Amino acid sequence: MKRTGILVAGGTRARFISVEVPDDADLDGGPRLVEHADLANPDGDTPARGLFSDRSGRAHGAASHGLDDHRDQHQAEIDRRFARRLVDAADQFVSAQKVQRLVVAAECQLLGKLRAEIDPKRWRDVELVELAEDLSHQSLRQLHGALAQQGFVKPPQTPTAGVYRPRGQAPSWR
Fold this sequence. Notes:
- By secondary structure, this protein is of the alpha/beta class.
- It is built from 5 helices and 5 strands.
- Helix 3 (about 70-95) crosses helix 4 (about 110-115).
- The mean pLDDT is about 80.
């Protein structure tokens, strides 16, 4: 089975998670998710009024029509820089965890920017799987359920060892 890593990202936050499969899944309860790193985008949750001036941008002595302040280009640059940071951090995560399969779950626009920043030569040994959904604010349990429902990871299992049985009842494996 391939070693799987998960990158979940939204506009403000990204998390790097590995899927840990115990040696004896029957005793330990199947795969579990372990979070390794968290990356924040400080400009991602800043409202536009915090990044840009509310003034109309008229030139001195000019007519009363406003000048273009390039807000869209500035916001796109902020998103591109965050995507670049994510790809660099993902590269470190992939090499540190020896990931062979990386599931990238991100909102649509961020996923497109990540796709543009990823160098295919750099990750030729890593299978990339994409999910266009922002799951970055979910708990590990919710995330595991959502990814299992999509078929990206095996569903969580309850351990069979240590299950209570009334005295005198034979175990089910006999």
